[in-house]
């Protein structure tokens, strides 16, 4: 299990980094999205991978880690998902504005000098 | 008066006065002068009110806790030593303010001047009565800052600007060193409190970090006190108005350095390192300053170098590691302040009444301003060390100390008395030059103004100070004796040696040295007459040794050449190399750490591989790689594949017991995909022509390199993730939240309780970020102008319209209008259902997966579905979403819930909860966190809708902007401006709500 998820995170990171280094803004935005999946999964995995752990408490009880899923990485990742959504939205708008202003979708705002 | 009030007023009043003075109208000279004078007088009175306590050997102390856990408190502490300095700061300050009232010209913005002066006075008081080292360093930098403003007061003069900048660069850099030094010192002692530091002298001197701390602190002190080799800023600071020079360079700014050295003397002095650094700096500065002073033609320049020299004398005394020398140093600090302030004021009077300060042009002023001449004569005699004046007394003590100094190298100490006598002879010569050059000789010719006596009140401060010189000189024990004694005891403690303050000590070696210095000084002046008459600039022999030139070269090198070279070498305005660098540094840093520490096997045995999950991740990885592969030429494909990866992520969350994450991830996935789909429309066409020429060699190499980086990053991340997952997770926090989630937060969904309750403040910050992002997106899109090649109606719509035109019985646009009719009807029917789901998710969030974020995104999806299927115009004709109102409401609700806790005397964002029984619905949690979550919900709806609607509207605007094109080519330039009025109603609909 751990190995699969670790490899998955690795592939997402690799694809994300590759796209991050590309010259077109759309490539970069896709790369950032892939990278944020990888990072979210990584943060999530720091709590340990638990299948079948109870995510919600019994009413009126105190939970313990023996039976319940670790909520801290989940809370962190929940925040991270929303923030990466916000940055994707911002980056998209920036991309469109830059494209409209400069006429190109190159990340530097101009085509590479040949 | 209680200590706290006294000390706080003493420091705070000048700053308040500075603000008040700064608010006065530009030409309110008298009001500003009265205000400043009143505050300085109040300062004197406050210092005096503290006298009974400190005279009895007590310490006024007030401590305000700020960050007690870090040992950072605001500590005000005034003992006898600080009292003496506080007295000088406010006393000389009051005199300077009276003087400045008459010195400053009518057209100068005087209130600004007094505002700076008062702020400086407050900072200086802060330095001397700080009881915490970091606080001292803070006020120290404030004095640098306000001295910069004061020196550069006449900012229309280049000399003033340069002088101010140089003073700031040198003293503020020294201040940073001092800050580092006090941090080290605080580390050694374990406290930044001055009392604690002063009580641990032995620990400090024997600590391995003693030398670094000493060097750093001395760098601060020596730069401030203009000691060689940092002395050169002081003469350039003479471009300041003369009252500033009289204040900063006699009693305050430059004395801060020697104050600090004397303050820390009991704990840092007494070592060879101290002797060598402080002593060498002192003796070099003493002789060099005095020598250069003789050859200055500017009265203030002469006084500036003389100040440097006298500060060198004080530094030397402090460096001798003798308690008696320390007493002599304190005494000379007082004496120097009195005679130097009066001499600066006299120089200012001469400048004011004759229009020049050049000794070569001045002459015979004695006949025009006899009274001022007498005053200057007495003050200059005190500076030269003529008997019966105060300068003589401390100089005698200095000679005695020079004779009896003990140090590591006896030979050098034999030279010290000779050096002292030579420096003293120089000081006689320059004092003589000041008096003889300005006041005696033939009548002056060709002066810019006709000289006359200054106004009575302008001369008054000089009179007071000169009177002090005389009575201290005549009756030292009766006048200054008790104060000096008090200051020395406060600085040195019980170990203060006995000393005698008497005018006559009998025929002794120091007296002989004084006489030799007087005779030698007079003869030297007479011998130099011919050279001085020539009017050559600069001192002979050492003309090439110009600190200023070196400073300027260094500045040019640092701020221009080095910066440009580094920018050329390392800088780029291109994004790709920057990102490449960031990624490489991250990979290398992680790899380096692993290499140093080793990764090793974890302490958890990896669980077995589930084939289903393996298959799912095979798909996920394929999607990710495919997205990376296709993102350039096939954006839609890449987007779909990205969605595939997102879904796999979502499934992973479900798999590993995180339903909340899966829910949110799924919803975010939907909204992100819609967002990106809306953006696709405005990107340029890029066709992957099969059989096109292969990429150039450079491009191919670059791709290979990027591929290598990406593979390295991926492998590294995989290894890291595996390493983390096979280790036992830290669980301290998890247990904490799991135990308290229901018992203290009233919710069974721990993740949600963390978000809205335990870490509610983070969430508040997060939704604020979301709001800011949405507003930014909105603002950017308001100014959006589509690129020309994206403006036209899409190809598909053109085809459909052409089809309409070709068929009889169909009007143009019929097909477009009917587009996706059935799905849009379904979407309309689904709208309330999805809305209800959103409300359900919101309400159950505290106990079951859901919550404000998920609900907000769901509601947004319901709305955006209508936009997608019904079209922007159709939806807006029927339903007005006012995203800004949603956002405002959300933020208000969330913040209001937090603030409401205050009303019950609880900390910000404390939640209240209980459970209520509702008919039909059942048990419902009633908690203030729900209101907070509703705030989150409203904000998420608002922010998402603001962004999505703004994007969706672009197509409407784009079409309208494109419309006039085919009709008339002339209208094309108008197309862009016409987009603004078109956007008008839409923009106002969103902006005004």
TrEMBL record, chain A:
Protein keywords: Cell membrane, Membrane, Transmembrane, Transmembrane helix
Keyword Transit peptide appears in the UniProt entry: no
InterPro entries: CPA3_antiporter_subunitC, NUOK/Mnh_C1-like
Membrane topology recorded in Swiss-Prot or TrEMBL: Multi-pass membrane protein
Spans traversing the lipid bilayer: 6-21, 28-49, 75-97
Record localization: Cell membrane
GO cellular component, one term: plasma membrane
Pfam families: Oxidored_q2
Family: Belongs to the CPA3 antiporters (TC 2.A.63) subunit C family.
Protein name: Multisubunit potassium/proton antiporter, PhaC subunit
Naturally occurring in which organism (per UniProt): Azospirillum oryzae
TrEMBL record, chain B:
GO molecular function: antiporter activity
The protein's name: Multisubunit potassium/proton antiporter, PhaA subunit /multisubunit potassium/proton antiporter, PhaB subunit
Domain of life per record: Bacteria
Domain NADH-Ubiquinone oxidoreductase (complex I) chain 5 N-terminal: 67-114
GO cellular component, one term: plasma membrane
Transmembrane region(s): 6-24, 31-51, 80-100, 112-131, 137-154, 166-189, 209-234, 273-295, 302-320, 326-350, 371-389, 409-432, 464-484, 504-528, 579-600, 612-629, 636-656, 662-683, 704-725, 763-781, 819-843, 849-870, 882-904, 924-951
Gene source species: Azospirillum oryzae
Region of interest (Disordered), ranges: 972-993
Domain spans labelled MrpA C-terminal/MbhE: 702-798
Membrane topology of this protein: Multi-pass membrane protein
Assigned keywords, A-Z: Antiport, Cell membrane, Ion transport, Membrane, Transmembrane, Transmembrane helix, Transport
Chief location of this protein within or outside the cell: membrane
GO biological process: monoatomic ion transport
Compartmental location: Cell membrane; Membrane
Taxonomic path: Bacteria, Pseudomonadati, Pseudomonadota, Alphaproteobacteria, Rhodospirillales
